[in-house]
Design a protein that fits this description.
Blueprint (H helix, E strand, L loop, with lengths): L2 H19 L9 E4 L6 E4 L1 H9 L8 H26 L7 H11 L20 H6 L3 H17 L3 H9 L2 H10 L2 H26 L3 H23 L7 H21 L2 H5 L1
Antiparallel strand pairs: 1-2
């Protein structure tokens, strides 16, 4: 696991110890999940479990605000990782139309939440304008980066194709033909909902064994959702996306606790 994620997990473990010291949580709750092929395991650290067990439940008035922070973190992570996944997979480079849709998605703005929706309502009339209002410059940067990557890998003709592509023309094209982007945003919504499902399973478990049993399905469904979003294997491990969501949720929960809003709303 990259060092940046290890350091973030360590910060969450520190927060976990703070909760134990305050008497808000029993120590040691973690989960180890066997992979579907039985060849490997995934460890959910105690610090990550702690956040989801102390986050506001759905019936709490602060549920949406706290989980909206996690939603934005998930969306930002997915945009970054989808493009990184494309760079790592030369087999995807010749599929220009698919790449254009992925790049355009990666350049879009995350939805900051409009209760009760955590993500862009891609069936509405106005979602395209809100998602892509500031997308032109980021999209041109992604196209330039893709062209350099492909050229350095020894495919100059294909690199020229990416170099010719223009963000303005791509956005106009997808404004007229939105179906490819709607499919991607629908997959993003499924990923986000599944992260929350994993968090709910952690909150519902009474002990480490029960948490692991509940996660046996939901965590692996999250991995499948990520593969479908990226149209193939090699996407960021589910644990990395889960760490980002948990970090954002922890920050929001800490703010609410400091203001003593959670206890008032309970």
């Amino acid at each position: 696991m990259p060092a940046e994620y290890c350091s973030r997990t360590a910060l969450l473990d520190t927060y976990h110890r703070r909760l134990i010291a305050a008497g808000a949580l029993q120590p040691g709750l973690s989960a180890t999940i066997e992979a579907t092929d039985g060849a490997s395991t995934v460890a959910i650290p105690a610090g990550l479990c702690a956040i989801w067990r102390t986050a506001p439940p759905e019936e709490n008035r602060w549920f949406f605000r706290s989980h909206a922070s996690a939603s934005v973190a998930i969306q930002a992570t997915l945009r970054r990782e989808v493009f990184a996944h494309w760079l790592r997979n030369p087999d995807s480079w010749p599929r220009i139309e698919s790449a254009c849709a992925m790049f355009t998605y990666s350049a879009s703005m995350p939805c900051y939440g409009h209760k009760p929706e955590f993500t862009h309502d891609f069936l509405s009339r106005r979602w395209f304008a809100s998602a892509f209002h500031f997308a032109r410059k980021p999209l041109n940067r992604l196209l330039a980066q893709a062209s350099v990557q492909v050229r350095n890998a020894g495919a100059p003709n294909l690199a020229d194709v990416y170099q010719i592509l223009n963000a303005r023309e791509m956005l106009l094209l997808f404004r007229a033909r939105r179906a490819p982007l709607r499919r991607i945003f629908a997959r993003e919504e499924r990923v986000l909902n599944q992260v929350f499902a994993v968090g709910k399973d952690i909150g519902d478990g009474r002990n480490s064994n029960e948490v692991a049993a509940l996660l046996a399905t939901s965590y692996h469904v999250l991995q499948v959702r990520l593969r479908r979003l990226a149209c193939g294997d090699g996407m960021a491990p589910a644990l990395l996306v889960f760490v980002e969501a948990t970090r954002a949720l922890a920050e929001r929960v800490a703010v609410l606790e400091d203001r003593r809003l959670l206890s008032k709303a309970a």
